[in-house]
Please model this.
Amino acid sequence: MATPAPRAPDARVLIVGGGGTGAALAHDLALRGVRVTLVERGELTSGTTGRHHGLLHSGARYAVSDPESAVECIEENTILRRIAAGSFEENDGLFVALTEEDMEYLPAFLEGCEASRIPAQLLSPEQALRLEPNLNPSLKAAVRVPDATMDAMRMPLRFFATARANGAEILNHMEVTGLLIHGGIVSGAAVLDQVTGRDAEIQADVTVNATGPWSEQVARMAGVDVPIRPSPGVMLALRGRLCNMVLNRLHRSGDGDIIVPQRALSIVGTSSWVVEDPEELDVPQDHVRRMWEEGEKLIPAVRGARFRAAWSAARPLIGSRGADTGRELSRTFKAIDHAEADRVEGFVTITGGKATTLRGMAELCADVVCRKLGVDERCRTRETVLLPHTAHYAA
Model:
């Protein structure tokens, strides 16, 4: 049952973007009694949210190079298991050392996990092979961490369903064609209904840009800039469940060093490069080959597995134009109040982050929005259990 929201104030918030972050933000604000309208130009979760490999991060992948993101991930991992129980396969993960170079990375990895409070258990090759018999038998060590897998669409639908039950208006196939700006104040957006072809305006006291890798493009409508580098990556789906745990190579993040079991498939990911336009979602064949080559280093059976699909998704990474591959950039997130940053009132951007941190991103952004609106309601999403994803279709 949805948690009753307090009486709504007169203020209205427009959220642009129907991915996981927009869903979690609509849920958070609705719980605080704020009137919310969310618009998405396509189907809900049809952007980056619906294209990731479905990994609920423990944070261990970032424990050495990006400790801020590591802490965010393990905190949100714990919260999501509590408020969205049943949405995850709680199968844990292994970070696997295959070479002497990997073993040299091991001490820093364990120290980083301990500093970030990520549970980590060092395993011998024999212990790892008992858990995952298809692993490369020449492995030297493995570390067990609380990774998990999720359905990239069903989990966000729980946020949408609960937000709608608390009064949020969710409109898909509604494209923002411009922002309404008068005297340096954003007062909503002009929209195009993709189904009827009709133009309309949606008035709002605060408009939130939650469009992930498209956030820079939407920000330009307000005459402001956000430091986003869209960073696509190729993923490869193979038929057959080649592992039951999430497998990672025990080294600094690289191409093809994660294998995620998803039902009867194995997802090998991912590569990384940067683009100016998040619509540039190519699937370079050399990247696909690299997924095969690197994946079989972890699981030799990858070599003979049957191909199912290959695709790419653009990460919304926060950083300067100087990045070459995207791996140099943090996976943390940021809420920007453009009244403070750019003297444009009524406009907020939430960007960066990962699917694992969508709730935390929403809490940070909702705090900013409520402060601007004078709404004195605390965040309740840490303890509010979400409706099942099926409730989205029953609404």
Remarks:
- Confidence is low (pLDDT under 50) at residues 4-8.
- The two ends are 13 Å apart (CA to CA).
- The CA atoms of residues 78 and 121 lie 18 Å apart.
- The chain has two domains: 12-54+151-227+330-395, 94-148+229-318.
